[in-house]
Amino acid sequence: MEKKCPECGTKIVGRIDKKFCSDGCRNTHNNRINKDSKNLIRNTNNRLRKNYRILEVLNPNQKKKVSRSKLIEHGFDFNYFTSIYTTKAGAIYYFVYDQGYLPLDGDYYALVKRET
Fold first, then answer.
1. Which residues contact 25 (CB under 8 A, 6 or more apart)?
2. How far is Cα 15 from Cα 31, in angstroms, rounded to an integer?
3. What's the CA gap between 6 and 78, in Å, rounded?
4. CA dist., res. 18 & res. 92, Å (int)
5. Under a CB-based contact definition with an 8 Å cutoff, are residues 65 and 105 in contact?
6. Integer Cα distance of 66 and 18 in angstroms
7. Measured distance CA(99)–CA(106) in Å, rounded
8. 2 — pLDDT class (breaks 50, 70, 90)
9. What's the N-to-C CA distance of the chain in angstroms?
10. How far is residue 19 from each of residues 9, 14, 32, 48, 91, measured CA to CA in Å?
11. Is 58's pLDDT higher than 90?
């Protein structure tokens, strides 16, 4: 039985388990299949990267207090973070990789950098 490339329909020549006629067809096929999930991942990573840069700029000395409006002014999105750390006292820190923030009273945040 003659196998055909699922991308372009060309006859497949070579190994019996070969699925595509070329690397180009294989890449095109897989890129098309993964397009939607790749966009979601790319957009999420871009959001995390932007949040990280904002925290890095606003917190050059690894500990600082800033207002919520200052973070928003820089484009910070509070919906994107990589982890949550709860202290024994119950304080909840949100982290974007090693840059973190702790909500304080009066719409302020304590910015911290985790030791790595």
1. 5, 7, 8, 10
2. 23
3. 43
4. 52
5. no
6. 58
7. 21
8. confident
9. 58
10. 11, 10, 16, 37, 54
11. yes
